[in-house]
Every structure is written in C-alpha cells, then in structure tokens.
From TrEMBL:
It comes from the Bacteria. It comes from Qipengyuania aquimaris. Signal peptide: none annotated. The chain crosses the membrane at residues 6-24, 36-55, 75-95, 115-134, 146-163, 175-192, 198-216, 228-250. The keyword Transmembrane helix applies. This is ZIP Zinc transporter. Keywords: Membrane, Transmembrane, Transmembrane helix.
Length: 251
C-alpha cells in the first residue's frame, strides 16, 4: 500500500511538470538555461547507468522466454530500442520540416497542427509506458524508484519545455492536459494490468530508444547553446547517487 501511494504521488508530480512547465519562466533564456543543461546531464546519466544495464537484464529475460541464443535475444532488445529512437527521430524531423515550410510560406514559426498533435500522441504513448513502469520496475527498491523518478522528472522538464516551444498555444490549451491524462492512465494501468516480464522488457526497450533520442535532441544541437559544466555536474551527480545507492544495496 505504501508503495502504491508513493508511486501515485510520483505520477502526480509528473503531471504537474506537464501542466505547469509553461510557468517556469526562468527556463526561457537565450542562451539556454543552465538548469536545462543540468537536467540534460542527469538524463544522460540515467541512459548510461540505468537504461543500458537494464536492457542487458531484459535481454536475459528474452533469452529465457523465447529460447533464443543470447546474441539473438540481445539483438532483439536493442532492435526495439532502435525502433523507439527511429520513431521519435522521425517525429522530430517532421516537426522541423513542417515549421520550416510554414516559415517559408506564411512567415509563422510554428509546425502544422496535425504534425504537432502526432508528436503529442507519440509523447503520450511514452508517458503511459513510463508511468506504467513506476509500478513494474526491474529495480523495485525504494532507492531505485527515487532515482528513476528524479531522472524522469528532470527529463520531462526538458522534453516538455521543448515540446511547448514548438507550439505554445496548442500545448497550453490542450496538449499539456493530454500528457497529464496519459500519465495517470499509465499509472492506473500499472495497478490493473500485470504484464509478463517479456512484455515489460519490450516496453522498456522501446521507451529507452525514445528517451535516448529526446535527450540527445534537447541537449546536443549547437543552436541550443547548452552549457557544458552544468551538463557535466548533472551527469556526475546522478552517477554518484546511483553508485552510492548500489553500494548501500549491496552492503
């Protein structure tokens, strides 16, 4: 019961980011806010210290469930991650192309509504899976859950900030509520539906690819004018927390 309450509070905190990210005026700076670079560093730390090791663990689950050789099972897991990365890359590219076309034709720095809503729909799918995994994580310890929550909170700040920048009117009017509803739906689904380990592995692998793409997209392009030291501080701080939690759990 306590675990359910904690995961519910975490899901509500995710919703708060979706709903109120537009109120975080200190993020709207040129060059890019140092806080966004710090959050990007934490997200990159999460990719290397959680996502990649957990993909390896899910590969073992695939191997046991399918009877495939270890190399093939591992290849399937990473292929699912590649599919997630490719899907979100395609959506980001569609947004960029649509915005450029509208700027050239209409002088408006906004993507087409249909393209933006397609992006919101894909992001909502990602939110459902991430919220579902609050109740079905490979690392079920409280420390592991807190680290997952912290990394996802900061990831949502950067991802939602970038999504809102594409079309703030649509995001503020309806988009943020769609993402918040998707988050709570995913959390409820996690309570009501207990998927087999292999299915959870598939979901995690897909989400992993999407998160990797979104982290790189938000932090690395030159036009973002990111800050290296806050980015490094975020990555190192998250790494220290993960290593500390691992040491305590083992000791």
């Amino acid at each position: 019961m306590a675990g359910t309450t904690i995961s519910a509070l975490m899901a509500l905190a995710f919703c708060a980011v979706h709903i109120f990210v537009g109120k975080l005026r200190f993020l709207e700076r040129t060059p890019r806010s140092r806080w966004l670079s710090f959050a990007g560093g934490v997200a990159v730390g999460y990719v290397f210290l959680h996502i990649l090791p957990e993909l390896g663990a899910h590969a073992a689950t695939f191997e046991d469930a399918t009877g495939f050789k270890a190399e093939l099972a591992e290849g399937l897991v990473y292929t699912l991650s590649l599919v997630g990365l490719a899907l979100f890359y395609g959506l980001e590219r569609a947004l960029s192309v649509s915005r450029d076309q509208r700027m050239a034709n209409e002088g408006r720095d906004r993507p087409e509504r249909g393209v933006f809503w397609l992006h919101i729909a894909a992001s909502a799918l990602l939110m459902i899976v991430i919220a579902y995994l609050l109740n079905h994580r490979e690392d079920a310890s409280m420390g592991g859950m807190i680290l997952y929550f912290a990394a996802m909170m900061l990831h949502f700040v950067t991802a939602d900030f970038g999504t809102r920048a594409d079309h703030p009117e649509l995001y503020d009017n309806k988009g943020r509520w769609v993402l918040a509803a998707a988050t709570m739906f995913g959390w409820v689904l996690g309570l009501a539906l207990d998927l087999p380990e292999m299915a959870i592995g598939c979901l995690f692998a897909f989400v992993a690819g999407g998160i990797v793409l979104l982290v790189l997209k938000e932090e690395l392009p030159e036009e973002r004018k990111s800050f290296f030291w806050p980015f490094l501080a975020g990555a190192l701080l998250y790494a220290a927390l993960v290593l500390g939690e691992t040491h305590l759990a083992a000791g």
